[in-house]
Amino acid sequence: MNTKQENKLSMYETVLELFSNNPAIVALILAFSNAATTFTNKVALLQAQVALQTAIITGVAAAKKTRKTALIDQMLFIIGALRAYAKATGDDELFNFVNYKRYKLEAQADTVLTQLANSIKDKANLHLAALADYGITAVVMAAYQTAITNYALFVPKPRTARVSKKTVTKNIKDLIKQIDELLLDELDALAIQFKVANADFYNNYLSSRIIIDLGSTTAKVRGTVKNAEDVPLVGATFFITLTGQTQKVGETLAVTGGKYGIANLLPNDYDLYWERVGYIQKVETNLHIPAGKEFTRHVVLQHISPFTGTVNSGQILNVLGPLNPEWAVGVTFKIRNTTTGPAIGGLTFYPATNPGDAPNGQGSTLLPGQEETHTLTAADFKAFLNIQNQGPNPQTYEITIL
Fold it and tell me: How far apart are CA 234 and CA 29, in angstroms?
């Protein structure tokens, strides 16, 4: 709907509320009552068409967005391995070719992203044998191809949806015309009969028929961000995009008390995002924000589940890497050796350039039951976090992002 149509629908709904609150008065004049019933039914049809119009595009956009996210996740895994391999072999051309971060991939047009995904696939296949040591196998490449295919096949679908939307848009226009004629030719004319006998109802009817220009005002989203322990998450990020798009149209940080707010939003459909390092991102999609509306959202973010596992004697295991957005400079994390048993050997935790790298003098060795908390600095950061078991028996670990 355009702004003018939204304004009219708002007026129709105000008239409906007046009729709903005064059924006895509406029933006093049979012709008025019949016209009111017809009006109610047509507005219901209009509301259904508006909901369908929104769902046609936003539903397809949301589905495509899911496939795009899955493809980019796979791309970043391949890119991380290629960059590590290129660095190790001194292949500057390959290193520069795969110089992509998530935000750059998300900003690509649909067709460009598909072409880039295929180019990266070709580079990986060219070095597939050597990439086995970097976690890239035929199984991984098959999954990557599936992600490319799923996304590429889905890219044309919004265009198909727009064809259906065109029909719904025409239905909305026709219904608005019919409702306007019903109001002008019947309800307005018959309402005059209430002017003496029911002056309050008549005046309320006239007030309800006034179309307020909602387009002259803006909207706002505000609220608080806390964790499951009811602790305000100061510094949590809140941002919004137009539904199905990636470019942010507003962004802010939660301040004292976890409070946040973005104002001066134009009427549109938006996706809302709340995130903080160490917590699972919360998303609300397809929120229609009309002009003049203030939405309140009090959000609770859940902690990211600890990373746990078992490391066999002498084994080097990669735990975190480019596919984990929480593994970044500035993150605070707790490492614990959760093994129960004698303190023989230990687990060595260390940052590494590649997922298979051996200990390099950085990190810590923790015996069973021991734990440490670290804040990752730029000087310490490397692409991967690895673990090696220094003992003769299997040992277990737990890593929690704080």
Answer: 60
Contact yes or no for 345/390 (Cβ under 8 A): yes
| pLDDT tens, position by position, 238-283 | 999 988 888 888 899 998 889 999 988 877 889 999 998 778 899 9
193: exposed, middle or buried (C-beta count within 10 Å: 0-12, 13-18, 19+)?
Answer: middle
Q: Give the SS3 label for residue 248.
A: strand
> Above 60 in pLDDT, residue 157?
no
3-state secondary structure of 218: coil
Q: What are phi and psi of 231, to 5 degrees?
A: -95, 125
Domains of the chain: 1-216 (no CATH), 217-301 (2.60.40.10), 307-401 (2.60.120)
pLDDT in tens, 78-90: 999 999 999 999 9
Q: How far apart are the first and last CA of the chain?
A: 44
d(CA 321, CA 385): 6
- Tell whether pTM > 0.90: no
Confidence of residue 212 (pLDDT cuts 50, 70, 90): low
- Looking at residue 359, the DSSP 8-state letter turns out to be P
How far apart CA 153 and CA 275 sit, in angstroms, is 31
SS3 content of the chain, % helix, strand, coil (to 5): 45, 25, 30
CB 13 within 8 A of CB 1: no
Q: Are 6 and 54 in contact (CB under 8 A)?
A: no
Give CA–CA dist 382/312, Å, rounded: 24
Using a CB cutoff of 8 Å and minimum separation of 24, what contacts does 93-96 make?
94/123, 94/127
d(CA 51, CA 1): 10
300 vs 180: CA distance, rounded Å: 45
The per-residue pLDDT for 305 is 74
Neighbour tally for 371: CB within 10 Å: 15
Q: By the 8 A CB rule, do 330 and 375 touch?
A: yes
Q: Count CA within 13 A, CB hemisphere, residue 210.
A: 7
Single-letter amino acid, residue 214: L
Token code pair at residue 331: 């993150």
One-letter amino acid at 205 equals Y
Phi-psi region of 393 (alpha: psi -120 to 50; beta: other; left: phi over 0): beta
Q: Which residues pair with 279 in a beta bridge?
A: 303
